[in-house]
Amino acid sequence: MNFTGSGEMFNDAFILGCSAIGAGLAVIAGIGPGVGQGIAAGHAAAAVGRNPGAKGDVTGTMLLGQAVAETTGLYGLLVAMLLMFVHPFKTN
Amino acid sequence: MLLSSDDLGFMIEGVFSFKIGDHTLWITTSHICLLIVFLVLVIFSFFAKAALTKGGEVPSGFRNIVEMIVEMLDGMVDNTMGKFAPSFRNYIGTIFIFILFSNISGLLGLRPPTADYGVTFPLGILTFTIVTIQKFRYQKVSGVIKGLCDPWPFWLPINLIGDFAVPISLSLRLFANVLSGTVMMALVYGLLKVIAYAWPAVLHVYFDMFSGAIQTYVFCMLTMTYISSAMETE
Questions:
Q1: Mean pLDDT across chain B, nearest whole number?
Q2: Distance CA B208, CA B181 (A)
Q3: Among B50, B58, B165, B181, which residue has the least CB neighbours within 10 Å?
Q4: Cβ separation of B5 and A85 shorter than 8 Å?
Q5: Domains plus CATH for chain A?
Q6: Measured between CB atoms, does B222 come within 8 Å of chain A?
């Protein structure tokens, strides 16, 4: 915890703290896929209600669409993981 | 309760290293887990082949299971790819079984090999290579150029980015899903060590089995969709 000695303005503790805040902000990206997957699942449920015979097809299509919609949330997760565990902004 | 990230065992760890010239190469936990998955699959395939070749008129026991798996995978490929299915049954079935075993190997205490970007990116590259080759085979060079300049010629860079985003998004999706499961399990076992009895089994069922199976299915479905859309000629 050397805040004065090194003469650098941004020392490691500061960078680690900011990285943790940034990681927390990055996983807010999870909101979007949550809403999107919920909408997809709701419409799939409505589709099965109208046509119960097509349950298998509807489920497959829903899962595929949800997995694609999930990608943006996963990018947020990756950014958070990189900030937390790889420390890309650390000076040494 | 303050723990550093060193106590959470989800990072890839080096097991031993050797030098080639100036480079230090590490054999990591990913290599070893991959080797274990590979050996399990090879042994399984030997038993499956033995069961399929001997057997009489009526299949029984282990042979039933193997035939069920093969029929399920072939049915999946047939449903998605239609007339293009016969030449891709082997490839899709192979990557399906490989990714599925890799994903659920977290149940056995291994670090899933697919939670390493070095494992999933080659899978994405394989898909990309197949898609590109089929595109050139079926649409010819003129068709590929026409597809790249689809609405207008100055759309070319965007179409190129769209093509190159396919392997990256495919592999990142698989990697990040498996990694998130691994991290969650490591957090449970690392931070709640005192009360982590029996109930993490529920989380294992979700993160390792359900999520792993879904992601396997999605990877194969998307690969098949990309390949068949590359092979369609107007």
A1: 86
A2: 7
A3: B58
A4: yes
A5: 33-86 (1.20.20.10)
A6: yes
